[in-house]
Write a structure and sequence with these properties.
The chain is α/β, with parallel strands linked by helices. It is built from 11 helices and 10 strands. Strands 2-1-3-10-4 form a 5-stranded mixed beta sheet. Strands 7-6-8-5-9 form a 5-stranded mixed beta sheet. α1 packs across α2.
Length: 284
């Protein structure tokens, strides 16, 4: 029997060679089109797969910059370079639209993320709820709230539940991004992290998830995608956005790795009423 891992490797090699041939052929004919996508690390796993498939289908060279959303906004503001912007929450997208960095009527909702506590496997610090984070001598991590929505949500959770002052001395790391935050937990370098629920699904064998009570969740974060005002190719950018939106129907791209793609699914967590109004008003 052929090893399943070997099959996966061969499939990836075949996909890579196909993409290489398409791009090489287009380079030779001078027809190669390019897109520059600015996106947060929280969506890198599904977007990497989608971009590979988009490249294979259309022969487009897609360049990416995965950074915390605040850093992406600054990059777009200062350089003006970028065709499509993806944000980890609605506030940053709203800011980008108000500043004229993104075309307002191009914005679409992608996914929804729930604030949660993520702990290493077997939960060595025996954390069962938010109040447990006030125990002395714990090592807690959050993402940098200045550039990462995950960090901003973490601070809001602690303030709204009245335990920020008790917990802040236990916060030993302000991670540069949510991907680095998740890896800290997976490696057992901290006792807990406050981030988004999807972090657990990146490391299902190394972490566990402690769900917050619905009343402890200030808001559900919605991830948005939109076309940059200074895009060099509006038609191609729209084609990419449409391609991403169409992929939301596929469980293997999103739901199988923990991403929530509908309000209906949020209702199973009793959190449908925690979706920001701007996210409810955007049509896919």
């Amino acid at each position: 029997m052929i090893n399943a891992r070997l099959i996966a490797v061969l499939t990836l090699l075949l996909l890579a060679s196909t993409i290489y041939v398409l791009i090489t052929n287009n380079l030779r004919t001078g027809e190669l089109e390019e897109l520059f996508i600015l996106a947060p690390p929280v969506l890198q796993k599904p977007l990497d797969l989608i971009i590979s498939e988009f490249t294979e289908r259309y022969g487009v060279l897609v360049k990416t910059s995965y950074e915390p959303t605040g850093s992406l906004i600054n990059k777009l503001r200062l350089s003006g370079r970028g065709d499509v912007l993806v944000t980890a929450d609605h506030e940053f997208m709203q800011q980008a639209v108000e500043e004229g960095l993104v075309i307002g009527d191009s914005v679409r909702v992608l996914t929804y993320l729930i604030p949660a506590i993520i702990v290493p496997r077997n939960n060595p610090a025996n954390i069962t709820n938010l109040k447990d984070l006030t125990k002395p001598n714990l090592k807690i991590a959050i993402a940098n709230p200045e550039v990462s929505p995950a960090g901003r949500y973490a601070i809001t959770v602690l303030i709204n539940t009245g335990i920020y002052e008790e917990v802040k001395n236990n916060i030993v790391v302000y991670a540069e991004s949510i991907s680095k935050l998740a890896s800290l937990v997976a490696l057992g370098a901290v006792d807990a992290a406050i981030g988004f629920h999807v972090m657990h699904y990146w490391y299902p064998n190394e972490t566990e998830i402690i769900w917050l009570q619905p009343q402890e969740v200030p808001e559900v974060a919605c991830q948005l995608i939109g076309i940059a005002k200074n895009t060099s190719n509006t038609e191609l950018s729209k084609k990419f956005v449409d391609f991403v939106i169409e992929s939301l129907k596929r469980d293997d791209v999103w739901k199988d790795i923990g991403y929530i793609t509908s309000i209906e699914e949020l209702r199973t967590y009793d959190l449908a009423d925690k979706v920001p109004e701007i996210c409810l008003g955007i049509v896919r």
